[in-house]
Write a structure and sequence with these properties.
Chain lengths: 246, 371, 369
Amino acid sequence: MTAVATQSAELAIVAHDLTRRFGNFTAVDHITFDVKAGEVFGFLGANGAGKTTAIRMLTGLLAPTEGSARVAGLDLKTQTEQIRHRIGYMSQRFSLYEDLTVLENIALYGGIYGLADSEIAERSASMLSALGLTDEMVSRLPLGWKQKLAFSVALLHEPAIVFLDEPTGGVDPITRRQFWEMIYAAAARGTTVFVTTHYMDEAEYCDRISIMVDGRIATMGTPLDLKREFDVPSIDELFVRLARPA
Amino acid sequence: MRVLKVLLRKEYLQIFRDKLLLRQMILMPFIQLIVLSSAATFEVKTSRVYLVDRDQSSVSRGLVDRLRASGRFRIVGGSGSMNLAGEALLSRDADMILGIPPDFERDIVRARAGSVQLVFNAEDGALAGVTNSYAQQIIAAYARDLNAGITHSVRESPRIELRTRGWYNQELDYKHYMIPGILVQLLTLTGTLLTAMNIVREKEIGTLDQLNVTPVPRSAFIAAKLIPLLSIALVLFAIGLGVSRWVFGVPIVGSIPLIFFAALIYLIGALGLGLWISTIVHTQQQAMFISFFLILIYLLMSGLFTPVRSMPEWAQLIAEVNPVKHFIVIIRSVMLKGSGFMDILRPLGMLAATGLIALTLAVRQYGKQAA
Amino acid sequence: MISTLAAFVTKEVRHILRDRQTLTILLLMPLVQVVLFGYALRSDVRNVRLAIVDPSPDYATLALRDRFQAAGRFTVVVTDKSMSRIEPLFRKGKIDLAVSLDRDFAARVESGEPARILIAIDASDPNTGSTMQAYARAVIVEYEQDLGSRGSPPVRIDPQVRMRFNPTLESVNLFIPGLIALVLTLVSALMTAISLSREKERGTLEILLVSPLRPWQIIVGKVLPYLGLAFANVLTALLAAWLIFHVPFRGSVTLLLVESIIYSMVSLAIGVLVATRTATQRVAMLVALLATMLPSTLLSGMVFPLASMPRVLQLLSNVVPAKWFIIIARGIMLKGVGLTHLWMETLVLVGMTLAFMLIAVRSFKARVA
């Protein structure tokens, strides 16, 4: 599955002039970019810059007003259903079921993605041990564990691409570190990771980043290249400079 | 489908873990059943009469005794003044005034015709009407007896012997009428309100997005939302039916499977409405309000509390597309009259039609993708 | 102190105004309900579908049948010689009432033997059943009287009937006060409970508690906008009742409005109480519903007359604020009475308001502050 993905879609995501309007307000304004397979792509921007809207379009939750995109080698507009089999998603608001246990949540998503019972059992066990969790009500877990769990569940069906919308919000620095280690591990396995965040220091962890300002992509490239290009010591600085005129 | 099975498992787990909701779902209708069954009568026990008897003759006293003897009228006060009587009505000390003019007996004996005044507190018009009817019956019977006494005629005046029978509800027990209605209400609330709130809750929390990103087909998601509530509503309905039968003594003359069949069809429409509501609101609070708003209108315009046939033409037309109305007709006919499948074919058809339309519209409105 | 309160109230008002959907419903719902139910909810019985069973038609039976035709309330749907074919019609719901006449009716009447008539009604709705029965009875009794008048005139007692406070016996006059109570309860109690518990749940309430605002001020600030909303609702409902249905307003409108405000305050206090004692918004919603809507509709005398209920329930109804308000509203609107007659009921409402408010504030301080 992964081999086929990398072959027929060297570019995991290709977006062309992707636009979304809500009445008179343009949330996403003709963005064009691509993401290579197996890369960790950071989609940065301030709150309200349009990141969540963009990710919602790419995951098929929102229809674009204009423009096109290919996700995991499939056309966004015409092949939305098939795309859903190949992607994973972790939304901004924690979205596992708090009134179900860890194992019940895993079993649910496993079943949804068509995993066999034996596979589910196997992966549940390894997930629990990897995260160091016991099976209990999700509502009882502290926030950091919940986020890590949600991420693991998003990867449960071994998707080609996983979309993470502000996954480290409100989490302590140690947990954030652990989270990024999990992201690297996923990328090492060949999964493309598309992550949005407003923590500019996390930009340093990505292979390439883009910065959105007022619905447009202001700049895109590797963190190193961008720092050199704009002559700034950190991505944080770069962002402040780009966002200021707005 | 395996996906459906997995989703259903999640739904049932969630519902049964929500202790408060379960308690509420069961409690409300049963409290209503208990309270309503005792409270819901329009029977007038006794009317309180203020007597203004300005004749004080044996004939007038005879009339008063007659009224008292019927058990339906109780003399709570009296005087010679209509003003005081009016005051009694205003201050709710009496329900009606019986005014007997000064020459009552003389008029009856000499001219064979007398008159009395009946003044009713008609705030409740229907009640006043029924009380009026009782009073007049008693007065007419008294007049007949006076006639027999006075005329001493050998030839009997023609008599009509009147008997009445109330079919399907011999004792005119209002419970028999109301309780099927409460069961309907139970189904409606569980079906529509809970469905709407359930789906909107996922929207509010954000788990809906998570599901929408997965390859779960829309039909599976909707089915998984509707089936658990459908099954639970039917179980509650069965319990309610049992309680009505064995605790309240409401007869079930007709076929029980038929009742359940109708309930099933009705529920599908009710759930469809709940689904539709969930697509147009964003918070649970809004879901609750809109559900209540619509449910109240449906229920009140359905003949549950007031008969459809008393409504104006346009309201009766609207009632024709009101599934609640048809379901009430069905449930009352089958439970109380023993109507069979053929007898209720028409309302059943209407029920199926309205339910299917509601569900179809709702499903179409519910798209995974926001346009 | 006034300015902090004012700022707080302004914020609350903005909140409400922003939730367009709920606001529309809150303003529209009472109006729609009043209009709809005013027109549609009637208890009077019209157009009774009649079946006549006449085994041996003769001049007497035909005369009686004509009486029924002429009576206006009845529509003779079917005539037959035997009852057996009539019963299925009842089951199908095609007839409401059957009048079954004795054989050789005229002969019996002539000879002075009793001529029997059976009135059979579909009593599945006992209320309309007894009314229909009363109508049928009236026709027959009149017929009987006229039969007798062929000899010497019989003794007659003519009742002169006056229906006070509601001469046209309009059902709507009865319902409107109850509907107003219901609407006020819904807006005041429910909305307050939800709004307060939502702030509690989100945690924004804590910020308020840390501010210079005192607990009672927070409650008043929360409650004031909904009072305004409730008042707007009462006005629209009363206007609709007056303009569209010509419901009488024999008493003082000002008094009615004042009483409505007092009643709203009771409901608001109950809403606050519910919010302070429940954990989440959803629970608050459901509890508020149970505690307010149910008693207000069932035990207040709004739909079912209190006089017909068993003692226990009658006693219970005394703690239902709606009961008192309905007495007051009906008194003012239909009877035209003022405080001289309604002082006790008003006092009860005021007492309830104070009591609930006190408990609510204390509960607020204990559990939240």
